[in-house]
Design goal:
Blueprint (H helix, E strand, L loop, with lengths): L7 H29 L5 H28 L2 E2 L3 E2 L14 E2 L2 E2 H19 L9 H24 L3 H4 L8 H19 L12 H20 L7 H29 L4 H15 L8 H26 L7 H19 L2 H4 L9 H32 L6 H6 L1 H6 L7
Antiparallel strand pairs: 1-2, 3-4
């Protein structure tokens, strides 16, 4: 019988990674989304992330972690044996790291996933409705999917591989964002004129930096796999940025900073499930594909279908998450992550990845739609037209982001 033994190096790396992932939400998403928002909504946009992360932090400790990672019940949910973390001691181990370090690391994943959804509905959702939505959403959408993939649930049982959250974080947030955006409805003014693109560059920088902990930390050890995941992720991001820039230049006649940021983020999304399973070559192909697919989704699919996803959460996180999850089943290399993909003769792995992708799409979209619809019927999701036109900062918070 193998007994878990504490490793201080592994513990230190996952603690550092936890802080890095925290920086992805606060201040990463805050500045990235805040810069993209209109000037009259910058504080409200930032506040949506702050309150979402805070709510999720509490829920995760009270019961979220327990349902996600507790002993499996019929492949669907975990058994909540440690409400409020009762019974989990500071010396308890999860592999070679303390269990409470693993809990903290996973908390930041839940927090950023919830924060991402806000990008689809900024400038028009009621703040009170958002609080109710996030409280319910993390409970009935995020927690069950996390258990399915990482907590011993049915998708893990059939062999899905998802290193850092292609299904749990990216597809989940992207499809949830699409569902709530459809229900809230289109903005009165759908033009995307970022009021401070410099904020978004800063936010994207924090995201890129934090993603190294997001993917590298998911090895849960300070080892070669963590380093490989980090290097593959950075390479994919760089390739994605350049790919989007080239597409921009071909289609628009010039490269754009926002396009470059979009390419990097899309590639980081796509490499997330694959980071610990593919080699550098696979990472490059995944990064290129992410930019191409997300560019198509944002510029062609979105106008054609007519939904209004303010910051293209579905187009970037949903679409690239789908691509990355499926591509993991194509490019996985056993010498890295212990599992071969389609290109190396393991045809069944691709089938499993497709099943996981479809299941996450259906569940995240359907349950999110139901939750949002119930909230809309009870308290209403959308602010009044006059509030939307004049801006949420002054009407909702009686504050302004600038006094110039």
């Amino acid at each position: 019988m193998v007994t878990d033994v504490l490793n201080s190096g592994d513990t230190s790396w996952v603690l550092i990674s936890t802080i890095m992932v925290l920086l992805m939400s606060i201040p990463g998403i805050i500045f990235f989304y805040g810069g993209l928002a209109k000037k009259k909504n910058v504080l409200n946009t930032m506040f949506l992330t702050l309150i979402a992360f805070s709510i999720v932090s509490i829920i995760w400790i009270v019961y979220g972690y327990q349902f996600a990672f507790g002993p499996d019940i019929n492949g669907l949910i975990g058994s909540p044996l440690n409400i409020l973390l009762n019974g989990i001691g500071i010396d308890d181990l999860h592999g070679t790291i303390p269990t409470i370090v693993f809990i903290a690391f996973q908390l930041t994943f839940a927090g950023i996933t919830a924060s991402l959804v806000s990008g689809a509905v900024v400038g028009r959702i009621k703040f009170s409705a958002w609080i109710i939505f996030i409280s319910l959403w993390v409970t009935v959408v995020y927690v069950p999917i996390t258990h399915w993939v990482w907590g011993g649930g049915w998708l893990q049982q059939i062999g899905v591989i998802d290193f850092a959250g292609g299904t749990v974080v990216e597809i989940c947030s992207g499809l949830s964002a699409l569902a709530v955006a459809i229900l809230v409805g289109k903005r009165r003014d759908q033009t995307l004129l970022p009021h401070n693109l410099g904020y978004s560059v800063l936010g994207a920088g924090f995201l890129w930096f934090g993603w190294m902990g997001f993917n590298g930390g998911s090895a849960l050890a300070a080892n070669g796999l963590a380093a490989m995941a980090l290097l593959t992720s950075n390479t994919a991001a760089a390739v994605g940025l350049i790919t989007w820039m080239i597409i921009d230049t071909i289609h628009e006649g010039k490269p754009t900073v926002l396009g470059a940021l979009s390419g990097a983020v899309s590639a980081l999304v796509a490499i997330t499930p694959a980071a610990g399973f593919v080699d550098i070559g696979g990472g490059i192909v995944i990064g290129i594909g992410a930019s191409i697919f997300s560019y198509y989704a944002v510029t062609i699919l979105k106008p054609k279908l007519g939904y209004d996803d303010s910051f293209d959460v579905f187009g970037m996180h949903g679409v690239s998450g789908i691509w990355g999850t499926i591509a993991t089943g194509i490019f996985a290399v056993a010498a890295i992550g212990g599992v071969d993909g389609f290109l190396h003769g393991n045809f069944s792995q691709l089938a499993v990845q497709v099943i996981a992708t479809i299941a996450t799409i259906i569940y995240a979209f359907t349950v999110t739609f139901i939750v949002a619809k119930v909230i809309d019927l009870v308290v209403g999701l959308r602010v009044k037209e006059s509030v939307e036109v004049e801006g949420l900062d002054t009407h909702v918070h009686e504050e302004t982001g600038y006094r110039l």
